[in-house]
Amino acid sequence: MKLKRKVYDVKEYREYKEYLNSTVELYPNNVAFRIKEKEGKNITYKDITYIKLKEDIDKLGTALVDLGLKGKRVAVIGKNSYEWAMAYVAVLNGVGVVVPLDRGLSEEEVISLLERSKADCIIFESPYADIMKKVKKSENSNLKEYICMDADLGEGFETLEEVLKRGAELLEAGNREYVDAEIDPEAMVTIVFTSGTTSASKAAMLSHRNFVSNIHDVFSIIAIYDTDVYMAFLPFHHTLGSTGLLAMLTTGAEIVFCDGLRYIQQNLKEYQVSAFLCVPLLIESMYKKIMEEIAKQGKTKLIQTMMKSCNALTKIGVDIRRKVFKQIIDNLGGKLRFMMSGAAPLDKVVAAGYNSFGILTVQGYGLTETAPVLSGENITAIRPGSCGLPLPSVDIKIDNPNSDGVRRNSCKRTKCNDWIL
Fold this sequence. Notes:
Layout: H1 16-26, E1 31-39, E2 42-49, H2 50-69, E3 73-77, H3 82-92, E4 97-101, H4 107-117, E5 121-124, H5 129-137, E6 145-148, E7 158-159, H6 160-172, E8 188-194, E9 202-207, H7 208-221, E10 229-232, H8 239-248, E11 254-257, H9 264-271, E12 275-278, H10 280-296, H11 300-315, H12 321-324, H13 326-331, E13 338-341, H14 348-357, E14 360-366, E15 373-376, E16 389-390, E17 407-408, E18 419-420
Parallel strand pairs: 1-11, 3-4, 3-5, 5-6, 6-7, 10-11, 10-12, 12-13, 13-14
Antiparallel strand pairs: 1-2, 8-9, 14-15, 15-16, 17-18
Helix pairs in contact: 2-3, 2-6
């Protein structure tokens, strides 16, 4: 069966800085990040607009260049946060090479990757303070600048707040070295360490062209709107998480942060999340809870019949799924319209189930080295169990196919798809 897929008309850019500047021009007052702040039992929310984000990026980038880091390597480590995102984009857009590090690494691994990457600066959260103090005393370290995102650690360490203030002063004085910096789309701008076939992690090198090409391709088959609210669940140090971040910042959408696995459903309601990029385990867990609740109410057969009926009507152009299954959608926040799964195979029944409820649920496939998405389903090309068609500018070849045109996967896990599709 030959599948057709809708392709959206998306403007192409040479490098990511152009992409972000265009978004800021189009949606200056849209909320880029909504940040939850807790003080005891009191909870407040701080909104960072796109124009504020751009100002902070320019301040940080200007200060980093002034510190002698032009063309150098800057590592970033910490949980998903506005500060992490700002630092990552600031380095990417005119400082040098950004090195995102997994916040779950052991002390020895963090130190090893800092040495292997030859990082000149690190921007980190306070939980890593003890490690940074050890690194500072090491003769093997190439680090010259230590910037803490969220605490004042004293002499030898700077705070992100201080660095931003310095950048603001430089910009006020007319320093435009960072703001007007020319970007080479082909040059390496990030080093991502990824697990490989050997015991030592591999270093993947990516450029602006890698990112903008991937973002353009993804948005050629998937529509994200400036009214969407996107939950940043995947860790930013993973390429799928960081490219997802970069992609959403080109749409004018609002980005929110998850409080943890236990709070997924609560956060979906709290922020009225409409778009979500995550792993199969989470999507499957949510679906299992939905179906268990339906079973408790003795409505399993009824719901299954309604799903079949709604699917049949949708095929002839009558889509009433979100009305029929409003109660289910309301339990997921009421606004959830799109989920994309990656990193492992998504259960066919689960994928089909969500789509029957009217929540577009698609699967993709990619590699860290490809920035990362290579293929994906979309609204006009869905086949549960498949990871979709190659993206518009991607060619995929099956290596050493058997007589059926496929190659067996060596993965032994019972839930793993047996075939590379």
